[in-house]
Write a structure and sequence with these properties.
- The complex is a heterodimer of chains A (322) and B (247).
- Chain A is mainly alpha-helical.
- Chain A has one domain (2-242).
- Helices cover 75% and strands 1% of the residues of chain A.
- Chain A contains 15 helices and two strands.
- Chain A has helices at residues 7-26, 29-54, 62-78, 84-106, 111-130, 146-149, 154-180, 183-193, 195-200, 205-231, 236-239, 242-255, 261-279, 287-301, 305-313; strands at 141-142, 233-234.
- Chain B has two domains: 1-78 and 157-247, P-loop containing nucleotide triphosphate hydrolases (Rossmann fold); 84-155, no CATH class.
- Chain B has helices at residues 41-48, 71-76, 94-104, 111-125, 140-153, 170-185, 197-203, 221-226, 228-235, 238-246; strands at residues 3-12, 15-25, 30-34, 56-61, 64-65, 79-82, 158-162, 189-193, 206-211, 214-219.
- In chain B, α3 (94-104) runs parallel beside α5 (140-153) and α4 packs across α5 (140-153).
- Chain B contains ten helices and ten strands.
- In chain B, the strands form two sheets. A six-stranded mixed sheet of chain B has the order 6-7-8-3-9-10, sandwiched between helices.
- Classes of the chains: A mainly alpha (322), B alpha/beta (247).
- The A-B interface holds A 181-183, 186-187, 189-190, 192-194, 196-205, 258 and B 49, 51, 70-72, 75-76, 80-81, 83, 87-92, 96, 99-101, 103-105, 108, 110-111, 114, 150, 154.
Chain lengths: 322, 247
């Protein structure tokens, strides 16, 4: 399959692969924690990109799937005693099912109306979980420490979780590449450019949009489970942070929507910048204002994002900047 | 019969856009659809390819009722359309635009085969050297050709062409007419709306005329052109016209 011979895919894949290998070789806890956060945002941004970049539907509620899937997976690990990888899969599947249900209702809407509906979904999910007793209501759930013992104690469990997240991130990159390079992906681009025309040309827009939404939502469920398992607790305010949805969106825009490398570069750059701003005394409360400013500047001046801009400037290297 | 339109009515609120429209197209036929502005020609196309369901009546395509099916189902059954107002997928390349037609049209080709088919279709309409360009960067005449290539790449049983000559300069029209003749010679069945009379009269086997949502005439191009009802629809009262011309 000549799709695998595209250098653009290998650039993205190897960047993440080698970063993970480096962390595993160096074995420092602080480095692992930083890498965990960066990989998590890369995976979240890349999965959002499947709906937002490829299909053109701006989703302000991506974090809902992270929260709901994460809650469910956490419940499976901690209360039901499932191994964390199976629980994560369970979280992913639940997120995908919820996306299917939500999709049937809100994917009929287009443009700004769809975007508004996704904001509502986020608030609804938070309100539901805060009042749902099996998930601990507004105080949330704390991990049952026996869940860590299975992996030889908390320290080992954290490394194990990191490896799982690393593999999930690689899976997101591969999936997003396969979608982009498939007939299905071509249909999604057609929907993004002009949904009515796409339908006249034979693209089954309602079904294809729902599929894209489902794939896009599956991964945050996995990632949420791993994140809350690593943290040892989950609560509504942590699981449904609207601000996180916005930040993921900024990452996709910053790097370049619709590109494979875009969300990876965007997530890495934004995350590093935020890390710096949070510890700097001058900006520590201002990082959100700054992300708003970044979004504004990107939308106004470089709608293709950083990678998109580079692709335009360096046509000879375009194959490498997929 | 490849297409049968039976007693089709379409009403938008208080506007009766189509009233009791009946006609049939035989395989291999080129049917011209003419009529003054606002007669309902594009609405008729929209009803045929599933953009709107008719208020009443049936559309039968290759012996199957397609009334009320969504446009993508109609497209998959082998009906392709070129729009009057060009609608390229701007951020895709010209080739990718045409590939969408090939991938999701009647034959549902794989990506590799669709790319081949796209290049063939682009060669037919004379856009082969633009294949790698973004569709948004084409000029109007080229976008018209792109519309045509997308519809051709679907390899449809029936092509709906909505004013592919509109907005072109006289020399571009001559070029486009050659392309249309080549397509006709390949054996496609075509239903086309056109305002450039000389063009449609020379290329069509039969012509139907729509006025205020009703079919007022049908027949060979020469008969239709001489029909007093048609002249009245376009120019007003024929006696009056004759008198004015005499003065």
């Amino acid at each position: 399959m000549n799709a695998w011979r595209q250098p653009g895919f290998w650039v993205s894949f190897l960047l993440i692969f080698l970063a993970g290998v480096a962390v595993l070789v160096l074995r420092q806890d602080t480095l692992r924690e930083t890498a965990f956060t960066v990989l998590m945002f890369i995976a979240l941004a890349s999965s959002l990109n499947i709906l937002m970049g490829y299909t053109g539907y701006v989703n302000f509620g991506h974090i809902v799937f992270f929260g709901l899937g994460g809650y469910f997976g956490f419940y499976l690990v901690s209360e039901m005693g499932w191994p964390v990888y199976l629980a994560a899969l369970g979280g992913g599947v639940l997120s995908a099912v919820i996306a299917y249900i939500i999709g049937c209702a809100v994917l009929r809407l287009r443009g700004a109306y769809f975007a508004l509906a996704t904001i509502g979904v986020n608030e609804a999910a938070r309100a539901f979980v805060s009042n749902f007793e099996p998930f601990g209501g507004s105080t949330g759930l704390y991990v049952n420490f026996a869940a860590y013992d299975r992996y030889g104690g908390a320290a080992h469990a954290l490394w194990f979780t990191f490896i799982l997240l690393w593999l999930v991130t690689l899976a997101v990159v591969v999936t997003s590449y396969l979608v982009k390079r498939s007939r299905f992906g071509l249909g999604l681009s057609a929907i993004r450019e002009d949904e009515d025309t796409a339908m006249v040309m034979g693209v089954k827009a309602p079904q294809d949009k729902t599929k894209a939404f489902l794939i896009s939502a599956f991964f945050p469920g996995l990632i949420g489970t791993l994140y809350f398992f690593k943290n040892g607790n989950v609560e509504p305010d942590d699981a449904f942070r609207f601000q996180m949805s916005l930040e993921i969106l900024v990452m996709v825009m910053l790097g370049g929507k619709g590109l494979l490398l875009g969300p990876i570069a965007g997530a890495f750059a934004y995350e590093r910048l935020r890390g710096y701003l949070i510890i700097s005394p001058m900006f520590k409360d201002l990082h959100l204002a700054l992300s708003g400013l970044i979004l504004l500047l990107i939308v106004l001046f470089v709608p293709g994002g950083v990678v998109g801009w580079l692709r335009e400037r360096l046509p000879h290297y375009r194959r490498w900047l997929e | 019969m490849i297409l049968q339109v039976q007693e089709v009515h379409k009403r938008f609120g208080g506007l009766q856009a189509l009233t009791d429209v009946n006609f049939e197209i035989a395989p291999g036929e080129i049917m011209g659809l003419i009529g003054p502005n606002g007669a309902g020609k594009t609405t008729l196309f929209n009803v045929i390819n599933g953009v709107y369901p008719p208020t009443k009546g049936q559309v039968v395509f290759r012996e199957e009722k397609i009334t009320g099916l969504p446009p993508y189902e109609v497209a998959r059954r082998g009906l392709a359309r070129a729009h009057q107002v060009v609608r390229p997928l701007n951020d895709l390349t010209v080739r990718e635009n045409v590939m969408v037609g090939a991938c999701f049209g009647r034959e549902r080709l794989s990506l590799g085969k669709a790319a081949q088919k796209a290049d063939e279709a682009l060669a037919k309409v004379g856009l082969a050297d633009r294949a790698g360009q973004l569709a948004g960067s084409l000029n109007v005449a080229q976008k018209k050709r792109l519309e045509l290539a997308r519809a051709l790449a679907a390899n449809p049983y029936l092509l709906l062409l909505d004013e592919v000559l509109a907005g072109l300069t006289p020399s571009e029209i001559v070029g486009m007419m050659d392309t249309l003749r080549n397509i006709r010679d390949e054996g496609f069945t075509i239903l086309m709306i056109e305002h450039v009379m000389q063009a449609i009269m020379s290329i069509s086997d039969r012509i139907i005329v729509l006025d205020y949502g009703q079919l007022i005439a049908a027949g060979k191009p020469g008969e239709v052109a001489a029909n007093p009802l048609v002249i009245e629809a376009y120019l007003g009262d024929p006696d009056m016209t004759a008198r004015l011309m005499a003065e």
